[in-house]
User: Fold these one by one.
Assistant:
Number 1:
Amino acid sequence: MVYILFIIILSHRGRTRRKMMKKIILSALAAFFMVSSAYADTVRMGTEGAYPPYNFINDNGEVDGFEKDVGDMLCVRANLDCVWVINEWDSIIPNLVSGNYDTIIAGMSITAERDEVIDFTQDYFPPSPSVYMGMSGADIDVDSAVIAAQTATIQAGYVAESGATLVEFATAEETISAVQNGEADAVLADGDYLSSIIAESNGEFANIGEVSIGGGVGMGIRESDGELKAKMNAAISSMKDDGSLNALIKKWFGFEAATF
């Protein structure tokens, strides 16, 4: 388009026509770059890929789960082209701050401590209880037992201050293995994560207690990215208003899950 307009102006030698065509070209260039920049707004969505049903890697090697569905819909509503980036949980905040991706959408609860380092959108998943899970039939006092938790989670912080003995692991899957092999008496994690594990364990695991800690789950964003935060907040609000967010919560967590 721009190339053709340059040919047209070169074919007109009149001064008036040159001035007129120059204005046309400048207007066309402005429109061209506005359109180009709109399509170039690519946002990298950072997730762990190891915390079902929030996020996981499916059999095709692709990001899947509740947050994949939510994130893709948010990007459409915010007119953004989003790509997914996998990052281990224990370095997910530092790598957001350093610019390896633009958002964290990884089952991250909104807390005052995290909010000192990064910013958060409004919650896209409501507050829900954390659950202690142990072996069925075991007599466990969670206030004095050995409790496994994933590193850098609100559950790990809670256990550390509870009087119990904390053992931390890099992944949620390792905390489950620690209970199975006797390294820990129980695990403390999001109830929405543990509920399916308990249900599918054929009676091996049991819910032995619940505690309410942290706020809802929000999208982490660098504090300097206020425009991106505003776009995502508007998109989240629209999903809450039309019921599409609640529909995805029920799809992935069941009809008994807390909704907005």
Number 2:
Amino acid sequence: MDEKALGIFGTIAVIILGVIGSLVAWFLGGKNLEGNKREIIRQMLNFEISLIIVSFLGLIPFVGIIVGLGILIANIVYAVKSFKAYNNDTEFKAPGFDFVK
């Protein structure tokens, strides 16, 4: 898979595909990229895994709606920011735990 497709799957596609988009990008070549592009794909994968964990708070009654909206907005905002950073080959840091090194 070429770098452009990896960038789309690892950044923008997470809005629709969630963690699956990041996993596809990571396993199809994202871990073989160099520099900032590899780091951006890794950061988004870690961010998506962190969102899955936080989404379990949505099981709590009345809190779920607020958490769900927050997760949706955060996912869109950080996907767009990471896509811009990927295309400009600049540094990017998404909030989340470091599951993938």
